[in-house]
Each structure stands twice: as C-alpha cells, then as structure tokens.
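Dear all,

This email documents one entry for the complex benchmark we are building for the journal club exercise. For each entry we list the sequence lines for every component of the assembly. Then comes the predicted three-dimensional structure of the complex as a token string, followed by one or two observations. Please use this as the template for your own entries, and keep the labels exactly as they appear.
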Amino acid sequence: MTLDKLRPGNACIVKRLTAIDKLGRRLMDMGFYPSLSLKVIRNAPLEDPMEVEMDGFFLSLRHEEARFVEVEQK
Amino acid sequence: MKGEKTLVALAGQPNSGKSTVFNALTGASQYVANYPGVTVEKKTGSYKYDGGKVEVVDLPGTYSLTSYSLEERVTRDFLLHEGPSVVVDVIDASNIKRNLYLTFQLLEMEIPIILDLNMMDVADRRDIRIDTDKLGKKLGVSVVPTTIKKGKGKKELVMSIAYLSGGGQAFQPSRIDYGTMEPFLREIKDKLSEEKPISEGYPLRWAAIKLMEGDSEALKLIGKKRSNPEEFLEFVENERRRFESEQNEAPEHHIAFSRQRTADTIVRACVKPKTKNERPLSDRVDGFICNKFLGPIFLVAVIYVLYYLSIVQGYNLTSYTWPLLAKIRSLTESIMPEPGFIYEPLIRSFSLWFVDSINALLNYIPIFFILFGLIAILEDIGYMPRMAFILDRIFSKFGLHGQSTLPMVLGGIYVGGCAVPAVMSTKGIPDERSRLATILTIPMLNCLAKVPLYVLLINIYYAQHKVLAMFFISTISLLIVLTVAKLLTLTVLKDKETAPFILEMPPYHLPTIRGVIGRAVERVWLFIRKIITIVAAIAVIIFALLQFPGISDDRNAYYNGEKEKAVGIFYKKIEGASYADRLQGENLMALVLYWDKYKKAKMMAKGKEAVKALNNKFEEENPVFFKIVQPKKDKAAKKVNKAFKKLFKERRKLLREIKKEKIDNSFLGRIGRYLEPATQWAGFNWRVNVALLSAFAAKESSVATLGALYQQEEEGETLETRMEKGESGFTPLHALALMLFMVLYPPCIATTIMVKIQTGSIKWMLFSMFYPMVLGIFAAILVFTGGSALGLSGLEVMFVFYSLALAITVMMGFVKSRPETI
Ligand SMILES: Nc1nc2c(ncn2[C@@H]2O[C@H](COP(=O)(O)OP(=O)(O)OP(=O)(O)O)[C@@H](O)[C@H]2O)c(=O)[nH]1
Ligand SMILES: [Mg+2]
C-alpha cells in the first residue's frame, strides 16, 4: 500500500521508498525512512496536497509524491 | 585570541533560528521569518570578543548537504572551501531527531562543531526533557542550550565559540556506523589515499561516503583530482552496484536510513518525550485554518484585509505624504530658471519631468510599507505555508506552485497590486520551473498603475456597463496568467528543474514588532535603492525621446509671430491706461510670472485668514501688479486686468500647442507613427502608440501622455471629454483592444529590474519584456480585427473573449505537464 491511499486519521509505518533522484532524496532528507511511523492529519480543501505528522513534525506533500512511499497501515 | 580573526559559520536546518542567532551575535537585523528557506544567500557580520574579531556567516538552512539544491551547494561549498574555524549547528530543540540528520553530515566533514540547542522555550512548553550532557557525549560535541529569541544562552554560546576556536576540543566527534557498507567505504578510502592530492582537499571518510552516495557533484569534484578520472569513477560505480546487489538496497538509501536510525537511537537515549499527549496547539488551529470550508473563507478574508489595509488605507496615507513630495517639486520649480513667454528653459522642463517621475514612484512608499509590514507579520506567524497548502492544487495544474500564492496576491490577483514586491517574493519557491513561470506571468496581473487607463476608457466607452467592464478586466487577467503560465511551462520552461512540493508546516509563532518593522524597512529600502535609481535613468531617456528633435525654426518663427501679435493686441487695448507705462519691456513678463504665482498660491491657500495674508504679501512685493491682479474699483486697473486675462489665455494656448507639436514631432511621436500601419489592425492610432510607448517606464504615464495629447479646448474639460472629442472614430471595440493590450503590457522598468535580480539573468529579463508585447499585439488584433470583421459590438466581443478565455483556461488545467514518474 502507498501513502497517498491513506485517509486523514490513518496511521502507518513506512516500509520502503520507491522514488529515486530528486524526489527520493527529498523524501529521505525530510525524514522518511523504513520503520518510521507516521499519521495522516488532513487533506487540503481541494484534497491535494496532504499533511502528515511524524514525531511531532508536520509536513505537507502532494499525493503524487506520496505514491512513492510504501507503507503498512497500523 | 587577541587581534586574530575567527571565522564562524552558522549551519542548520531551515527555520531553526540561524538568522536569529546571527542577529543576536552580530547585532545585525538579518531577515528572519517563520518560513523554511528564508535565507538563500549567505550573509556575513561580525562581533568583537576579547579584543579579537569574530566573523560570522549565516548560511542558508538545509535539510541535508547534497548537491540537489542551490542552498545545499552554497552551504556545502562554504564549509569545504572557506575553512571556518567553528561551525555552530543551530537545531530546533523540539525536533532534535530530524535535525540530527544534518548534524551527522556536518560531523563527517570534520569541522569543529558546537551544537546550539535552540528554541528551548518551545521544548519546555511541550514538556520535552533533554539530557544535554548525555547528548553531547553521544555526539562528541559541546552542546549549548539557547532560547535565542529572548537572548537566553547567548553568553554561553559566545564563550563556547571562543573556547573551541582557540583550539580547545571538548570531545572526540562520534561517527555513524554504516554497518554493511563499512567495508565498501574502507575500500574507497584506500583507493583515495593511493594518490596524494585528494587527501589534501577533503576529509577521506567524507569523500568516500559522498562517492558511495553517488552525489554527482562530489563525483565531479573528486574525480577531477585523480590522474585517471574515468577509471576511478568506474571503480566507484562498480562498488555502488556491488553494494546494491549484495544488500538489495540502494547505497544512498542505506546511508540516509542509517543516519535516521542513528538519530532515532540517540534521541531515545537522551530525550524524554512529552508526557502530555495532546495535539499541539498549532495543529488544532490548523483544524480551522486548513479546513475544507473555513480554510478558503479565511484565506479570502486575509487577502481582503491585506488589500484593504495596504491599498485602500495606504492610499489614504499618501494624501498626507503627497504634499511633501509636492513641496519637493515646488522647491525645484523655484530654484530653476524662470520660464519665458512661450519657451520653457530645457533645464527647467527636464528637472520638473525628473522630479515628477521619481515622485510617482515615491508616492507608493506608504503603500509598500504597510504591505511589507503585513507580509512580515504573516511570515512570522507562519501562515504562508498554509496558504501554499490550500492553493497548491489549483496552481500546480497550471505549472505554478502553492507558494505562488503570495506573489499572485501581491501582484494584484483582483485589481491594484504591484509587480515589484510580487516578483521579489518569489524567492522562496523551491521549484525552479514554477518560480520562473510565476515571475514571468505576474506582471500581467492588474497593478495599481494600470488602473487609471482602465477607468478612463471604461468611463468613456462602457459608461452603461461600468461594473461589468471592471469585472471583466480584473478577472480576465487571472485567466490569462494561468493559461500563459501553463503555456510557458509546456514550452520555454519545459526543461527547467522542478522540485517536489514537500513543505514543512512550522508551528505558529507570535510575530515580534522589531522583526516586522525591521523587515518592512529593509524591503522598502531595497525598493528605493535598486528601483528608483534605474527608473531615474530611464526617465532621462524617455524625456529626451519626447523632447527632441524639437520643433523646426519655421515653426518657432511662427509661434514667435503669434506671441508678438498677442502682445501687440494687449498693448493696444491698454493704451492710455495709467498702468500702461509700467508694463513695458521686461515688466510684462514679470507680470506674467507674478500672475501665475499668485493664482497658484491662492489655490493652495485655505480660509479667509490665509487669503488675507497672501494678499498682503503680494501687495507688498509689488503694489502695481497687485492692483492689476485685484483691481477692485480701480477702473484703469480693471481694463488692464481684462486685457491681460486674454493675453494670459492666449499664452496658455500657445504653450499647449507647442507642447503638442513637440510630442508629435519627437522621436517617440515618430516611432508611434511609424508603427501605425501595423498597430491599426489592433485599432491603435499613433497617439495611442505614443501613450503606450511612454508607459514603458511606468504605466501611469499612459494616461498622463494622453492628457498631453488631447488638449483642452475649454477650461476645466476632463480628459474623458477631451479624448472622446479627440478620437471621434473610437468605439468600445477600440477601447477593449487597448485595455487587453494593457493587461498584457510588458512589465514596467522597475519590475524588469526585479526580474533581473530574481532570475539573475538578462536573458529572462528581456524575455519577460518581449513575449507579453507579442501576446498583447496578438490579442488586440484578434479582438479588434476579428470583432470588426464579425460586426460585433465591444460588449459582445467582451463576452466572446471572456468565454473563450475561460474555456481555454479550464482546458489548460487538464493538460499534463509533469512527468508521471519522478
Ligand atoms: N520560540 C522561539 N522562537 C524562535 C527562537 N529563535 C528563533 N525563533 C523563531 O523561529 C523562526 C525562524 O527563525 P529564523 O532565524 O528565520 O530561522 P533560520 O534558521 O534563519 O531560517 P532559514 O533562513 O529559513 O533557514 C522565527 O519566527 C524566529 O522568530 C527561539 O529561541 N524561541
Ligand atoms: Mg535565515
């Protein structure tokens, strides 16, 4: 399952990053790594982008980008 | 450290407080905002300590140190090549884990590091307990807790810097264990140390890690130092491939994940997580601010208040500041040589033109000050990322970015913005393609200076449908901007770098007064410094183009003859009157000036008292002239007064005719005529061309020039009536074409300079001037020639054009521009 499929309120654990290059780099630098647990907080008024929380840190990203984060729902 | 110079660098993740630390240390007022990525270039300052000078460099915030973004490259190159004696790693104490990710990379560069645990107040408030000693030991660096916004911990930080740069090394920096990758790193290190040069420039382990990471620039940098780069790079590539097949994990992933996991382990050991498990306040606030329904409403309200306070109230403020500027003008007027009967000395007309041009811009300063102040508040609070979050969906469909919102608002998303601050505010957009698309399209929004022309034309040609026409013009520009942005993205900007949206949503902060005012002043100052100087230069050029070559000798003689005639009539009329002999020769001109000055002064004087004082003053100055100006019951004086009024009017008429002829005859006038055969398809005659050309420096000039072209025939005629009379052939269709051209009109000089500053390229600056012109002509011709051919009225064409634009915009929104896989 990928992160973009989750709805607000869902929590999950990151399994794998499938993006390479710039997006992959950026995801890693912003703190995504396997075994990280995160929670989807909300979607923007027009559904995209989404906001997630990881360890008290809030991040927004587009669904298109969240597709590259494989997760396991908790 | 007496007399020595120490170099200290401030590094850290975005929004951790580096610039605040910088300001605290150096006493400067560096740009601080609650928005990641505020500082893009590095800034330098210094302070004195123990007799020595400590130079401090504020580096851009980076999440990491690869070569993917400009800021990261700036920071990394500085650390590698400038050799700072100490790096202060400013980290957010309420978010240690993610901040350590960068700390590890700094440690790998083997530079002495101090960990500035900033924002302790936030950590305390959230009940996050940090064992700083343990943290320092685990990392092998000295840790200084600070709440730098309130000045807490500054002394300790300064002492710590002094100690470390004086050669004291607190601990042995720890290093990350990359586990299964360690053998690979060792092999690369061995290979690196075979040849001498590399061990001089860079720390070996750092270089090995970078190479395994596949960092393109590191590969280039290090490869360059080898005697046989191809062979070496191939060796590295082989190692990377071998690791990936053995471990089933990309080496760069392995490296990043190891750092994150190590950070996690350390934080678990040293930080007691908050006991209160409630949602943070900022998140709860966001429940409203980013809510499906309330979010957009709040956004519109914010934009409305922004406009209301800056444009409406700021504009009211200009009625207090304008008299100041008017004073400068009248002061200039008074020190210049006095005008002749029909000729104005060149130096005089030039000086006045110059002052007028500069005043037109200076007049915006109150508006800018309020605007910049409000933006600073929004930035400090942390609303900007929320704005981007709410609108990204729409903007990204057109090749723009969520962070294009602020520039759009500033540029005049409805009516009455200004492209200069708008282009200035594109700085933070990380996506190069969207940033350029934003910069290039913003000038098409409706800035304040375009409004007078709209109002003029709508008042004449759409008097029955004012509201409709105003709605059309203020929303059509947004449709055009979105469409053009998408078109640019699909064509000229196709190959520009894009960046993921991924944006930090920082917690809300309270803005500080000092910060807000400081930033407003700083930006206004930038405007004055960079813009006004160049606009001044351009004003000179336009002046020359409008003034020269001037009128021919023949015509000069003609006007002189007219003057003599008028003067002759005057003398004849007053013959025998007792004042006649006092008005001979030079005295006549003196009376003209006296009369002029008196009328002007009287217009300014308010109240009976003031008029009385004024009368006394003028009477004292010249009792005879005063009698003529105010004859009262004196019969002879009355006679002279009447004749003189006639003469004065005649003079004014001559002056106007000369001015008009000068413009007709000027270089600009000639260009306008020269262009007429082409522009007639858009419905522009040469006069309109001249007005548009003169608007190039500043758009408000268009109406001013039209004012000069359509001369008054009777006293007090408005420009509206004059234009209607002067252009009997003009129809609403002409007006529509002209207004559309104005929407697409190339950015004013001030904006183009800002474009140059923000894109750093003359090429883009020229492009930003050129393409709107082509587009504008095209749209105007389409509307005018097309509308005439179909026999449609201006209003009908307006509907057709609007529907077309709307349809195209919606269609454009569906065209895919970003690659499906990234
Ligand atoms: N509560 C609190 N806020 C702080 C402290 N230090 C800085 N801030 C605030 O944090 C925000 C970010 O500060 P900056 O100094 O602009 O951060 P920066 O690291 O320079 O950010 P970039 O230039 O974007 O990398 C501002 O709103 C500051 O007022 C602190 O000790 N406590
Ligand atoms: Mg900064």
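Observations: The domain at 181-272 of chain B is CATH 1.10.287.1770 (Helix Hairpins). Chain B touches chain A through 49 residues (CB under 8 Å).
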